[in-house]
Design goal:
This protein has 13 helices and 11 strands. By secondary structure, the protein is an alpha+beta fold. It folds into 3 domains: 46 residues, 2-Layer Sandwich (Uridine Diphospho-n-acetylenolpyruvylglucosamine Reductase, domain 2), CATH 3.30.43; 109 residues, Uridine Diphospho-n-acetylenolpyruvylglucosamine Reductase, domain 3; 119 residues, Enolase-like, domain 1, CATH 3.30.390. The chain has a 5-stranded antiparallel β-sheet. Strands 1-3-2 form a 3-stranded parallel β-sheet, with helices on one face. Strand 9 and strand 10 form a beta hairpin. It is globular. The N terminus is likely disordered. It comes from Streptomyces iranensis. GO terms for molecular function: FAD binding; oxidoreductase activity. Keywords: FAD, Flavoprotein, Oxidoreductase.
Length: 299
């Protein structure tokens, strides 16, 4: 994996099934699971992490594909960004494919996985706001063949955490068959880490708009009031695209203000502290992304 890896881990186990991987983790509580290793090996090489053992997940074929299940797509945690970026997957879940294509340079997309994005839970993970907007759930494999399912948002928020010996095996995503989009801003030209990102999906069956903002907080943020407000203005039975441009602009500002709010007024009654310039710039960026995402979804 890297020239530093042999010095970092004394044991490397390569199970062939998900249950074998769980058993390996149960047998070696100090072991660290690794799939693409894009974040793990960066931590190893920088000296931040020295795992006593590794459990490699690259040979587990059952988590490297996807299948249809009851109106959902069951995605294996081992799906790479490169695989999710292909046209056949883009026809299935367009926003997640767009996030996968934007995840970084080819070497990152070829190695990084969907499950790794979730478990690492880096604020800049491009797949995370998409999964939040889609209200996806994760299926967790545990000891003795046990399985449990929780919302992705619960895992990212720390409401429900992985227990010892558990692995994220699959991600269940509803197939909405409706417009959805993902947009991100970076600090430089070309692939790079997000400074802000927005995922937006339309749900005509529930007459709803779901939006999630990434990279501006430790986990994706859902501006629920902005979602409900703009959904009430869309003509779901007629021409959805016929929406006043002022509404899309106001939606962007609504989303940005919800995710990057003004500071609370001082309790002593003094003048409120203004947002710093960096936060003002970030708010404008989020507003622009949300406005464009809604416009593209409705077009």
């Amino acid at each position: 994996m890297t020239t530093h890896a042999p010095q970092a881990a004394h044991t490397v186990t390569l199970p062939g099934t998900l249950d074998e991987a769980v058993a390996a983790l149960a047998a070696m509580p100090a072991a660290v699971p690794v799939a693409g290793g894009t974040d793990l090996m960066a931590a190893v090489n920088s000296g931040l992490l020295r795992p006593a053992a590794l459990v490699g997940l690259g040979r587990i074929s059952e988590i490297r594909g996807w299948r249809y299940l009851d109106g959902h797509a069951l995605l294996g945690a081992g799906l790479t960004h490169a695989r999710m970026g292909r046209p056949d997957f883009a026809a299935l879940i367009p926003a997640l494919a767009a996030a996968a294509r934007a995840a970084g340079p080819p070497q990152i997309r070829n190695a990084g996985t969907l499950g790794g994005n979730i478990v690492t839970a880096a604020p800049t993970g491009d797949a995370l706001p998409v999964l939040a907007a889609l209200e996806a759930t994760v299926i967790i494999a545990g000891p003795e063949g046990s399985r449990r399912e929780i919302p992705v948002s619960h895992l990212l928020a720390g409401v429900d955490l992985l227990r010892p010996g558990e692995l994220v095996g699959f991600v269940r995503v509803p197939l909405l068959h409706a417009p959805q989009t993902f947009l991100k801003a970076t600090g430089r030209t070309g692939p790079g880490r997000s400074t802000a990102s927005v995922a937006l999906v339309l749900d005509p069956a529930r007459r709803g708009v779901r939006c999630a903002v990434g990279a501006v907080a430790p986990m994706p943020l859902r501006p629920l009031e902005a979602e409900r407000w703009v959904a009430s203005l869309i003509d779901w039975d007629g021409d959805r695209g016929h929406l006043d441009p002022q509404v899309t602009t106001a939606f962007g500002e609504y989303v940005a203000a919800a995710c990057i709010p003004d500071p609370l007024p001082p309790q002593d009654g003094s003048e409120p502290v203004p947002l710093p310039p960096a936060a003002i710039h970030l708010r404008r960026t989020v507003a622009a992304l949300a406005r464009r995402a809604l416009g593209r979804a409705l077009a």
